[in-house]
Specification:
Length: about 550
């Protein structure tokens, strides 16, 4: 594919000034309207639309306990093992702190670190707070941070968050009580952004407790009770060094099906729930209690492909291309998603959240082209594939999959559906290639603008959930991750995008719709990446 010279995208947050830009977006109550979300052009719309009605006489009050709904079962709360924003990740981020944080506009802002600078391409220094304490009252020190990174850099350590670090980070050393030095093996232009999910645990506690089910962090809340199937309760960390949250108690409830989420809202049992079917939002649109959100999320929704199963027809790029041509994304979007999004532009990055390759466009709906490619690949008489769904996880997933089944049948492809609870579904992806389904959904995007690891990680051959065979894509994204300049990074990113498009390493669907229902009694800046951190939810002003 011929590509014109692409513009160089730079993130001013990543300039090596040593004085990171701090973004503190104001949190305001939204009026009872459907808010259209899309950051930059759209986040500005959200923030302006969220004002105006705060403090009006009809503002309903919320209780002493903040009630937040999760759409996935909890898989454990080990802060060194990552976690979905729709379950474990939201709880972990309310209990623990990391060196940096990600603002709703995808900029990188200070966390435990107050400033950072790159002294040379392989050396960074971070200034950290000295007033942070764990919820047992013990101080969080530079030595504690070093210990956490030492564990994660040990290849025998079970914390999965360490695997990406080990590709470019050699060591973290203490310069003094407020200064840490990161020694790299490869350049990392976006290092501050990469550290936002490296949560700091108390070393003594970590070595004597099961972090999957127990917690001791320095964040605004501490864990009171955990039930992985049903939810978790939190209360204030009285030793927290930051701003005191608005709610002393928080209850996260797992509502793994659409029916459960809708029923809980109708019964007035929840204050904030994300991931609702756009068709179900209408019943809350004119509510005296709730506001609704319908817009564009930060993460692309794709059908990931198992290219490594023995004898699979999906090893042939012509078959993968055919499935892209056989999928009528626009009809699905208009009929099921209220037209909230547009088809992915032939890539898993898109504006306004991430810089995209302007030379790549969406696969058009072309069933005749699909039939031609299938015939060329030796499947003129058709083929049968399986798709694995996780119960209640992705917005309109079930209905959209049924639509895809019908569309693919028109070109001779039979698609069979299997469905599992989220933990079992996730484990099946972690398993061997021949035991995994042919196709499964992946909704995973970058956490900050220009996040190469987050944007492309799940589509590499070496990702824990991947069943791809993509050596060229792997090489190009590695070069992008290790680029020494923004221009070099952009060149490799665009080449990787073009490779993934031409090889059809995914069925490119559409950006994840960002949907939700929020109590009018709350102040909350919508976070389209779907992390529901309790400390970021406030109370609406009362008259």
């Amino acid at each position: 594919m011929n590509r014109p010279d692409a513009p160089t995208h730079s993130d001013p947050q990543q300039k090596q000034t040593g004085k990171p830009v701090t973004h503190r977006p104001s949190v305001r109550r939204r009026p009872a309207v459907v808010v259209a979300l899309a950051i930059a052009a759209v986040l500005a719309t959200v923030l302006s639309a969220c004002g105006g009605a705060a403090g009006s006489a009809d503002t309903p009050k919320v209780g002493d306990e903040l009630r937040l709904g999760l759409s996935r079962q909890i898989t454990g709360i080990n802060p060194h093992k990552g976690g979905s924003p729709d379950s474990s990740g939201s709880i972990v981020g309310s209990i623990y702190e990391s060196l940096t944080r990600i603002a709703p506009d995808l900029s990188v802002e200070p966390g435990l670190a107050t400033a950072w600078t790159s002294t040379d391409p392989l050396t960074w220094r971070f200034t950290i707070r000295t007033d942070s304490k764990f919820s047992d009252g013990s101080p969080l020190t530079a030595d504690d941070v070093v210990w956490n990174f030492q564990q994660l850099l040990n290849p025998d350590y079970k914390g999965t968050s360490g695997a990406p670090l080990r590709k470019y980070l050699k060591s973290v050393t203490k310069i003094d009580d407020s200064t840490l030095q990161f020694n790299l093996s490869q350049p990392a232009l976006d290092l501050p952004g990469r550290l936002w999910t490296i949560f700091i645990v108390q070393p003594v506690f970590a070595q004597s407790h099961n972090l999957d089910n127990e917690a001791l962090g320095s964040g605004p809340y501490k864990l009171d009770k955990l039930d992985q199937e049903n939810g978790a309760t939190l209360s204030l960390n009285t030793f927290y060094a930051g701003t005191k949250p608005a709610f002393a108690h928080v209850k996260y409830t797992v509502l793994a099906s659409e029916a459960q989420r809708v029923a809980a809202l109708r019964a007035g049992e929840q204050d904030l729930i994300l991931n609702l079917d756009p068709l179900d939002l209408a019943q809350f649109k004119d509510s005296d209690t709730y506001d609704t959100i319908l817009g564009v999320g930060t993460q692309p929704l794709t059908l990931a492909i198992n290219e490594r199963k023995t004898g699979t027809p999906l090893a042939d790029p012509r078959v993968r291309q055919a499935l892209n041509y056989a999928t009528d994304k626009t009809t699905i979007i208009n009929s099921l998603l209220q037209g909230a999004v547009q088809p992915l532009p032939g890539q898993v990055v898109y504006e306004p959240y991430q810089p995209q390759d302007p030379s790549v466009r969406a696969y058009p709906y072309d069933p005749e082209k699909a039939k031609q490619l299938l015939a060329e690949a030796g499947h003129a008489t058709g083929l049968t594939l399986t798709v694995a769904l996780s119960s209640g996880t992705y917005v309109s997933q079930d209905a959209a999959t049924q639509a895809i089944v019908a569309q693919w049948a028109k070109v001779g492809v039979t698609l069979k559906i299997t469905q599992q609870p989220f933990p079992a579904w996730l484990q099946s992806q972690y398993g061997p290639d021949d035991a995994a389904a042919d196709l499964y959904y992946i909704m995973w995007g970058g956490s900050f603008r220009g996040d190469v690891t987050g944007n492309f990680g799940p589509f590499r051959s070496d990702h824990i959930q991947s069943h791809l065979r993509a050596p060229e894509f792997d090489e190009l994204t590695t070069k992008a991750q290790n680029a020494a300049t923004e221009a070099e990074k952009t060149t490799y990113v665009n080449q990787a995008i073009e490779n993934a498009y031409s090889q059809a390493h995914a069925i490119f669907l559409y950006p994840s719709p960002f949907t939700g229902v929020v109590s009018k009694g709350l102040e909350w800046t919508p976070k389209p990446n779907r992390y529901l951190y309790a400390q970021q939810v406030g109370r609406a002003a009362q008259p």
